[in-house]
Amino acid sequence: QVQLVESGGGLVQTGGSLNLSCTASGRTFSNYAMGWFRRAPGKEREFVSAISWRDDRTYYADSVKARFTISRDNAKNTVNLEMNRLKPEDTAVYYCAADRAMRSTVIRFATAYNYWGQGIQVTVSS
């Protein structure tokens, strides 16, 4: 079993920055692919970013590419999502997700992840 806890959300103005963190416990973190997803009010959950377990390759949704950066620190069991140039449309509940030894072909799909955090609110004011 893996437990995930997100931190770092909050309220920020358009153009500002936030850094989300997700701390994992319970298993060998380095063997897990890590992803971030979000759900905006009235919308479906969508993929934001992910980082592989094998080679730290990173993946981004087109809507956040060049603004968000994902990274992981296996020694601290954390994955970070640095969010810059935030826009009102980035407002959502952000979820950290994990699964073991995931293939890169499915890393963008929420259904591929078995472990999820509780979610954390990010609000970008206009």
Mean pLDDT: 95
**Please, what is the oligomeric state?**
single chain
Low-confidence stretches: none
Number of helices: 0
Helicity, as a percent range: under 10%
Cα Rg: 13 Å
Largest sheet: 7 strands, mixed
Structural class: mainly beta
Envelope shape: globular
Percentage beta strand: over 45%
> Kindly, what is the distance between the CA atoms of the first and last residues, rounded to a whole number of angstroms?
40 Å
Number of strands: 11
SSE sequence, one letter per element: EEEEEEEEEEE
Q: Please, could you describe this protein's structure?
A:
The chain has 126 residues and is mainly beta. 0% of the residues lie in helices and 50% in strands. It has strands spanning 3-7, 10-13, 18-25, 32-39, 46-51, 58-60, 68-73, 78-83, 92-100, 115-116, 120-125. The strands form 2 sheets. Strands 2, 4, 5, 6, 9, 10 and 11 form a 7-stranded mixed β-sheet that branches. The protein is globular.
